[in-house]
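seq:
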Amino acid sequence: MEIKSLAAQHICEVLKGNWSDIFLEDVLQDVTLEEAKFIPPSKNSIAMLAHHIKFYNEAVLFRVVKDSQTVNYEANGFDVPELKTEVEWQHLKEATLSSFTNLADKVLAMPEEQLFELTPSGIATFYKTLHGVTEHAYYHMGQIVVIKKIFRNK
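struct:
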């Protein structure tokens, strides 16, 4: 199997079928709008974290396709629009989840040798950056689980 196929698989397994037995799709599935908007002492709501995960995946996607589009790194994806309805929250959840498959699709389409090139920032290779996508998702997934527990036990 090609390395890029393994990297794409690793990204998609954040949603389902990974070694950790905790999946972003399941973690977000039962979160209501009220829970999503709840701001715990850590100051980041579930909605903010979901939007941030989506932002990060899209920023990496721009690097993978070498897109010159400007990404607003100042807000870092924590600038989630106000969610007023359950439908808006459902759309954010769907967009967050699809950001993983969108990125994985681009990884599968990239030349394998690009994996070992430095990203435009010059800090890391694409290969390392793509692994960072999953590490980043797991980190914030843990926060989401804790926020759900805080909200449901308050």
